[in-house]
Design a protein that fits this description.
The complex is a heterodimer of chains A (413) and B (269).
Chain A (H helix, E strand, L loop, with lengths): L10 H4 L6 H16 L16 H26 L7 H16 L12 H23 L4 H21 L1 H4 L6 E2 L4 E2 L9 E2 L4 E3 L2 E3 L1 H25 L1 H11 L1 H6 L4 H27 L1 E2 L6 H14 L4 H31 L3 H9 E2 L8 E2 L10 H19 L3 H15 L5
Parallel strand pairs in A: 7-8
Antiparallel strand pairs in A: 1-6, 2-3, 4-5
Helix pairs in contact in A: 3-8, 3-9, 3-11, 3-12, 3-13, 4-5, 4-6, 4-11, 5-11, 8-9, 9-11, 12-13, 12-16, 13-14, 13-15, 13-16
Chain B lengths: L10 E10 L2 E11 L4 E5 L6 H8 L7 E6 L2 E2 L5 H7 L1 E3 L12 H8 L8 H6 L3 H19 L15 H14 L4 E5 L7 H18 L2 E5 L3 H7 L2 E6 L2 E6 L1 H5 L2 H8 L12
Parallel strand pairs in B: 3-8, 3-9, 6-7, 7-8
Antiparallel strand pairs in B: 1-2, 1-4, 4-5, 9-10
Classes of the chains: A mainly alpha (413), B alpha/beta (269).
């Protein structure tokens, strides 16, 4: 078989998650590199900055949003049910996690270990999802979007008023730390919440959290991918593509829509709990409409209906602001350094002093032009529009085109 | 002709009437289909042929009458329950799952023949893995039967029309149905594609022994392959019988060619 690497001689080989050797090798390499990021500085040729704590945080953020994006992708991308309620279920998961996991004090908290609070943060939102689902899945399209939009506002109101759980507006509350315990003992088995030495390497708190998130993301991804290629996943896609035909093929539309709603809520809940603990302190206003919209944007940019699209989308949306910021800083350094064409172009784009004209200003406070934050908002909106017009399959579609081009190279197909 | 003679019919439709507010789609239509038969329903556009299919699938709920499947009523069921009873269907305007591959489309026809739930699927464990691999054999059988091997992994939305029609037939066959409802399987096809499809339909009848109801506008096809033909016009049955009987029926010729008053229909038709 050596001469025909893509020749499959059994259906199990053909239906495997990673059907080709190229995919296996590429994925393994990527995972090993990702796992090595915390010790980047001690590996030759590895970009050092990835191991810095701020980049570790950024990548953890990507992983957490990746888990959340897998959830919304399942519901909106795979099953075709546009939901704006994702932020509600994330908030719900976060507060379930904190009630189970935070030590008892003024606010509710049972101080249970992470292996309880994290799964509960998925299970309870799923249960609530199944409870409100029957009302939601009876409507479709825009109507469903509006019905789920209602959830976000009900949620925000509830989070603001359930002060004994959420800490209320402005104050918020602290969320449980990432520590693995058997039960409630003092000394955690594995402590992700403080610096330490692992396998002889100095690993910072941020890097430990990153490794944990990476692991959870891998698990979440494998589960999502498996779901998508088996019976239930096909039923979801069938409903998305042709609901009446799906029913006539024997798919119970109501049951499977509800199922998608429930599983998606579980993903959202886990992502919400992780996000809250990752940031440390959250206020009720975190779980607002913008968060839901951000997730819709992630899967639109990444490529709706595909697992890898959801992951690429979250990496893109989380990393873009940072890259824009770094880029503007770099440009302002160019201006400061002096002459040349680039400096004058950059000078026109960026305003460095209150009386200097520029599209973007990097000064603290109000000034001429957009702030970097505003610029990011504009770029974000622009990208969503551009992707919808030019590449409905998102980053995944772009990747597909690149892959197919090189697959046949030097021929066109 | 009478369903009383011999064993009960596989499907018996009794006096169904269907209307949408004031619009009458079907008025007192009765017929039966015997096991192993290729029964055809013809009629001019808007005669109510597809409505009959939608009634059998319970997508539409007829206001009057009843539909019996092996003697039990199908009325009030959900469409997916009719599928579980063994009724499969293809559509007039292709209703494939456009973003899925040919293989996955046919696999989705196996939905009712598989049992594993979402959790087993997510874990790719136990029954899920076993069923997925076992059913792949069945899917491959159908892919082979319909000669669509080369498109196995293509997204179905990108395939030519004739192939899509074939994939849709495959998806219905994957359900291993006892009754197959074919809604204009050769509409818009050229002669060669039509002949291919006719061959598949006859093979399904002979080799797989599946009973079929065929709705079709291509008269030569219907007259060639149907065992019995029913003719509808404006929601009413105007004739039923062997193809050659129907062909010469005065009402049928009138429905297709039109009549002026009660002047006799010209012989040459």
């Amino acid at each position: 078989m050596r001469s025909r690497p893509h020749l499959h001689t059994s259906y199990s080989a053909d239906q495997a998650l990673m059907p080709t050797a190229t995919k296996k090798v590429a994925l393994a390499t990527f995972l090993i590199l990702a796992a090595l990021a915390p010790i980047a500085s001690s590996i030759p040729f590895y970009p050092d900055f990835l191991g810095n704590n701020d980049w570790m945080k950024l990548l953890s953020h990507v992983a957490i949003f990746g888990i959340g994006a897998l959830g919304i992708n399942l519901l909106t991308g795979v099953a075709g049910q546009v939901s704006l309620g994702h932020a509600f279920f994330m908030g719900l998961g976060a507060y379930v996690g904190v009630v189970f996991g935070a030590p008892s004090g003024d606010l509710w908290g049972w101080g249970l270990p992470m292996w309880i609070w994290l799964p509960m943060a998925g299970i309870i939102p799923a249960a609530i999802g199944l409870l409100v689902g029957p009302a939601a899945v009876r409507v479709r399209g825009l109507y469903l979007a509006f019905a789920t939009l209602g959830l976000v506002f009900i949620g925000e109101w509830a989070w603001r008023n359930l002060k004994f759980i959420t800490g209320g507006s402005f104050a918020g509350r602290r969320f449980p730390e990432f520590q693995l315990r058997m039960w409630k003992e003092e000394e955690p088995l594995v402590d992700f919440a403080s610096d330490g030495v692992w396998l002889g390497f100095e690993i910072s708190e941020e890097a430990k959290v990153y490794l944990l998130m990476l692991g959870l993301l891998v698990v979440a991804t494998v589960l999502a991918k498996n779901l998508q290629r088996t019976r239930a996943g096909r039923a979801f896609q069938a409903i998305r593509d042709r609901d009446i035909a799906a029913e006539i093929m024997g798919v119970n539309e109501f049951k499977y829509k509800l199922m998608a709603f429930g599983i998606s809520s579980a993903y959202a809940g886990v992502a919400g709990a992780l996000f809250a603990s990752f940031v440390g302190r959250q206020i009720p206003e975190t779980w607002d409409l913008f968060l839901s919209v951000e997730f819709i944007a992630i899967i639109l940019i990444g490529g709706a209906g595909t697992v890898s699209g959801a992951l690429m989308g979250s990496a893109f949306v989380i990393l873009l602001p940072r890259l824009v910021q770094d880029f503007t800083e770099w440009l302002s350094n160019v201006i400061a350094d002096g002459e040349g064409l680039l400096a004058s172009v950059a000078d026109a784009v960026i305003s460095v002093s209150p009386d200097d004209f520029g599209v973007v200003n990097i000064l603290p406070g109000a000034g001429p032009g957009l702030s970097v934050f505003q610029l990011n908002q504009v770029l974000f909106g622009l990208l969503v529009i551009l992707f919808m017009i030019f590449e409905p399959l998102g980053l995944y579609g772009i990747w597909l085109r690149i892959r197919n081009y090189w697959k046949g190279w030097p021929f066109t197909y | 002709m009478s369903p009383d003679a011999g064993p009960p019919a596989l499907l018996e439709v009794r006096d169904i009437s269907l209307s949408f507010r004031g619009l009458v789609a079907l008025k007192g239509v009765s017929f039966h289909v015997n096991e192993g038969e290729l029964f055809s329903i013809i009629g001019p556009n808007g005669a109510g042929k597809t409505s009959i299919f939608n009634c059998i699938n319970q997508v539409y709920r007829p206001q009057e009458g009843t539909i019996l499947w092996k003697g039990d009523s199908l009325m009030g069921m959900k469409p997916n329950q009719t599928a579980e009873r063994g009724i499969a269907r293809t559509f007039q305007n292709i209703a494939l799952f456009a973003h899925m591959t040919v293989m996955d489309n046919i696999f989705s026809g196996r939905h009712i023949r598989m049992n594993h739930g979402w959790l087993a699927g997510m874990l790719w464990w136990g029954r899920a893995k076993r069923e997925e691999l076992e059913n792949r054999f069945k899917v491959e059988e159908i892919i082979h039967f319909l000669e669509i091997e080369r498109w196995r992994k293509h997204p179905v939305g990108l395939l030519p029309y004739g192939i899509q029609k074939r994939v849709e037939l495959g998806r219905a066959l994957a359900m291993e149905p006892e009754l197959l409802l074919l809604d204009e399987p050769v509409a818009g096809m050229n002669v060669e594609e039509t002949e291919d499809m006719a061959r598949f339909i006859l093979d399904i009848q002979d080799e797989l022994g599946i009973t079929m109801i065929l709705v079709e506008h291509d008269m030569s096809l219907v007259m060639d392959i149907a065992d019995r033909v029913m003719v509808l016009d404006f929601g009413q049955k105007i004739a039923e019988g062997l193809p050659e009987e129907v062909q010469t029926d005065v009402d049928v010729i009138g429905a297709y060619l039109g009549t002026t008053g009660d002047s006799p229909v010209p012989e040459s038709g």
